[in-house]
Amino acid sequence: MFCLFRNSHIHPRLNRYVILLSLLGVIGWLYFTIIEKSLVTMLKSGDALIVDLVFGLPLVLMMGVVIYATIYWTCKILIIIALPKFIVPAEPEGDVLQEQLEEDNIQTLEEQHGSEYWAEDDSHSELDSSKDEQKAADEVK
Known about the structure:
By secondary structure, this protein is mainly α. It contains six helices and two strands; from the N terminus they run H-E-H-H-H-E-H-H.
């Protein structure tokens, strides 16, 4: 199940609603912490301590991200269990990207060097071996 969770996406039509539900959870969290717990009034009146500003405010904002991810992943697990037809398998992006880079690289090399670049010439290999022998002889001297 972990493999399915990791290597799949929610269908785009349903994904919009899952994102909306997650954002509503974040808005609810921010409303609760900022309005209900009177964080704004504490900041405006000067009652907030330095600890509240240094640790409290960033923690409140980071928890919004955690709540978003928690709601989204919970919905994804529930969709995998209850509505598996709304799960779309993900294509491995690395393989597609690697193939595209290799094809682009091959085309670029062929444009620069021509199709002879890929054909092995015996004359080139003989020249290379004679150059290597000449270098070795020069190093010995």
